[in-house]
Amino acid sequence: MSDAFTSQHQVCIAGTGSYLPEKVLTNADLEKLVETSDEWIFSRTGIRERRIAAEGEYTSHMASKAGAKALEQAGIAADDIELIIVATITPDTLTPATACYVQQQLGAPGAVAFDISAACSGFLYAMKIAKRLISDGAFSNALIIGAEKLSSFINWDDRTTCVLFGDGAGAAVLRRAAPEEGSIIATEMGTDGKLTHLLNIPGGGSACPITIDNAGMNLASLSMMGKEVFKHAVNRMKESAEKVIERAGLKPEDIKLVVPHQANLRIIDAIADRLSVPHERVFVNLQKYGNTSAAAVAIALDEANRAGLIQRGEHVVLVVFGAGLTWAAAAVRW
Ligand code: ACO
């Protein structure tokens, strides 16, 4: 599904924010939990450490903290926010939506609030939904958040997954833009439901409730066929990034920064090469946080923004990939 910008109102990113829990879990710490090594983890993924939420710190708490920072940067009071979308695969509860807790925690009683589940692609799915609802005139602004507490859905005995993931949240405020302001120029998203088996959390849903009989089987933990996922990730991210670059009328040299999903440095390098974008114009922070799923691209965008790597009028391309399989991209004039 795709669109070039044709609607009534332009939509800009007015502010970004992120939050990472304090606790750091290093590769050396993981060497004590499973049979692995810093050398294996770093050379295969680029990850050195990740953050782990504190006891009693939930996805909604991290989402609210990231959201509050984005609101502050956008200069919009929580009271004035009209829409909150939280992208997560690790909600506080199956129902109500994590976005409802966030609405309460932020003090945003006027906001319509709901979650979407698109794994690592969720933040850009939320961006497209919010952009459309604002450009159509249904809302004048929105707070979109990617937030995950993956540490609650990891089998800490499984070395093929436990070294990859971390916790955190990132957010952006979208609002109607004046003609001279930046805008989200083009978006793209896609899904391949034939590949649900490559990456999933099999238990805890209606297909496989957790019962006394299966409680010890780690069914509510993330399971992944890494090599297969890797191949699809490179191809789909490249294709979707190319589509938004073309639709936005950009050439590789016009792109100030590519902000990709932060899962694996080898995937990111392969995409940079295929898009002919120099590696120094591709933002990477996965060495610090690992893969935080829906939060990853949002945290990366906030860090790049706050570091001054994207200035007004410059172009940034966001591109993501995750379970589903799902993928998405966006071209933004800052
Ligand atoms: N430490 C040491 N050895 C390990 C570890 C570990 N932590 N994990 C696996 N190994 C071993 C394997 O057992 C295997 O051993 P064998 O050859 O004796 O069988 C060997 O290392 C190679 O394993 P592979 O899985 O083939 O390693 P690969 O090079 O494919 O790297 C990885 C694995 C890092 C997971 C990679 O495939 C990857 O990044 N895939 C993509 C992940 C991704 O992009 N996910 C996106 C979305 S996530 C979401 O949506 C929530």
Automatic annotation (TrEMBL):
Family: Belongs to the thiolase-like superfamily. FabH family.
Domain notes: The last Arg residue of the ACP-binding site is essential for the weak association between ACP/AcpP and FabH.
Catalytic residues, chain numbering: C120, H261, N291
Recorded metabolic or biological pathway in which this protein acts: Lipid metabolism; fatty acid biosynthesis
Compartments in which it is found: Cytoplasm
Protein name (record): Beta-ketoacyl-[acyl-carrier-protein] synthase III
Function: Catalyzes the condensation reaction of fatty acid synthesis by the addition to an acyl acceptor of two carbons from malonyl-ACP. Catalyzes the first condensation reaction which initiates fatty acid synthesis and may therefore play a role in governing the total rate of fatty acid production. Possesses both acetoacetyl-ACP synthase and acetyl transacylase activities. Its substrate specificity determines the biosynthesis of branched-chain and/or straight-chain of fatty acids.
Domain of life: Bacteria
Gene Ontology MF: a single term: beta-ketoacyl-acyl-carrier-protein synthase III activity
Keyword Cytoplasm listed: yes
NCBIfam families hit by this protein: fabH (TIGR00747), PRK09352.1 (NF006829)
The Beta-ketoacyl-[acyl-carrier-protein] synthase III N-terminal domain, residue ranges: 114-193
UniProt catalytic activity: malonyl-[ACP] + acetyl-CoA + H(+) = 3-oxobutanoyl-[ACP] + CO2 + CoA
Enzyme nomenclature, EC number: 2.3.1.180
Species name: Luteolibacter soli
Class of enzymatic activity (EC top level): transferase
Assembly and binders: Homodimer.
Sorted UniProt keywords: Acyltransferase, Cytoplasm, Fatty acid biosynthesis, Fatty acid metabolism, Lipid biosynthesis, Lipid metabolism, Multifunctional enzyme, Transferase
Pfam families in UniProt: ACP_syn_III, ACP_syn_III_C
